[in-house]
Write a structure and sequence with these properties.
Blueprint (H helix, E strand, L loop, with lengths): L3 H10 L3 E5 L4 H12 L3 E6 L6 H11 L1 H4 L2 E5 L5 H8 L4 E4 L6 H6 L1 H21 L4 E7 L22 H20 L3 E6 L2 E2 L12 H10 L5 E3 L5 E2 L2 E2 H13 L9 E4 L5 E2 H13 L11 E3 L14 H7 L7 H16 L9
Parallel strand pairs: 1-2, 1-4, 2-3, 4-5, 5-6, 6-11, 7-10, 8-13
Antiparallel strand pairs: 9-12
Helix pairs in contact: 1-10, 2-3, 2-10, 5-7, 7-8, 9-11, 9-13, 11-13
């Protein structure tokens, strides 16, 4: 596969049925949108515990009715084995995104994180195996690296887990390996590094930093930085995440299967740098934002100081070539939030 455009053209001409779990979530809804845009048949599964009906409505409006009709949505829970089996029927490829994705939340409520991220993952593995699914691509996380200090993060070098969330994602990878060894069921894990983009929730106690910055600056509210701002992350625009999923779902080299890959850009941006970037972009639309200053507060529990990915494995085995650096991704993200927040939409679940 020479380019991402070649991959998309091949998917368009080779139609299949896909299941996206967590279809109403931030990443899941973008996967649904991209698959529908490629004229694929899609099954979506979500219980709306963290996913939003508004996200699916945005997809419907973007796609129009003919393509939207290719989506069969099931309101169900990955904690329910029967719902998992129903969603997997006649499906060839599963993109498993459903999870409770917050490290601080997992510290506050480790049991719900285990139930959703481990038991729910096992339910999907069993349903996919028993339904004849040919491959499952699943969301892992950079949190699997735990306390190992080395940078950049390389897939084979993992430290001690520092949050229940990071531990659940590592357990997912181990379970996927067991299903390959015991049952010959193929899967690919994608360790996301700080994904961001349109439709990411800017609200709530566990909101990600980029939508929180953008919404605060657009609405002229206080923006907060956790810690002194020197902490650095490998922020990854949603288009790069979608690319990683489509590559993992279609790669033909069997040596690429049953492994985990970093999905990131491979660059580190500090929170102070990030705030300045967001402020400059927002100020083009809201001039008063140019003078905004962030308020510092205590770091969040479970957050690591620094994170940066080595993406060479994904580049070599999957053909992954991320197209958007942080500044380009922020431009597109701010554009979307400005179009919605500045006309009075609250971007909350209904």
């Amino acid at each position: 596969m020479k380019t991402y455009e070649d991959l998309r053209a091949r998917i368009r001409t080779g139609k299949r049925r896909w299941l996206v779990t967590g279809a109403a979530g931030f990443i899941g809804s973008h996967l649904v949108e991209n698959l529908l845009a490629l004229d694929q048949d899609v099954v979506g599964l979500d219980n709306f515990s963290t996913g939003k009906r508004d996200n699916l409505e945005h997809v419907r409006q973007a796609m129009g009715e003919p393509r939207w009709a290719r989506l069969r949505f099931i309101e169900g829970d990955i904690g329910d084995p029967e719902a998992c089996m129903a969603a997997c029927r006649s499906v060839e490829t599963v993109l498993r995104q459903a999870a409770l994705g917050s490290m601080p939340h997992s510290i506050d409520d480790p049991l719900s994180s285990h139930d959703n991220n481990v038991s729910g993952f096992l339910n999907m593995l069993l349903a996919a195996r028993d339904s004849g699914v040919t491959r499952m691509v699943y969301a892992s996380s950079s949190a699997t690296y735990g306390d190992h200090p080395a940078l950049p993060k390389v897939e084979d070098v993992i430290g001690r887990a520092v949050s229940p969330y990071g531990l659940t994602k590592r357990v997912n990878e181990l379970y996927a390996g067991v299903f390959s060894a015991c049952y010959g069921f193929d899967s690919v894990g994608l360790r996301y590094f700080n994904a961001f983009g349109p439709r990411q929730d800017p609200n709530g106690a566990y909101a990600a930093v980029i939508p929180a910055f953008i919404s605060a600056l657009l609405l002229q509210k206080t923006a907060y930085i956790n810690g002194d701002g020197s902490a650095g992350r490998d922020f990854c625009f949603i288009d790069n995440v979608v690319q990683g999923n489509l590559l993992a779902a279609t790669v033909e080299d069997r040596a690429a299967l049953n492994q985990a890959y970093n999905i990131a850009y491979g660059e580190q941006t500090s929170l102070l740098q990030l705030f300045d970037l967001v402020r400059d972009i927002v100020a083009q639309r809201v001039p008063s934002a140019a003078g905004a200053r962030a308020v510092h507060r205590e770091p969040r529990r479970g957050d690591l100081k620094y994170s940066r990915a080595d993406i060479s494995k994904a580049q070599t085995l999957l053909g992954y070539v991320p197209r958007y650096r942080v500044p380009q991704g922020l431009e597109k993200t701010v554009e979307w939030y400005a179009a919605h927040l500045l006309k009075g939409e609250e971007l909350v679940d209904v």
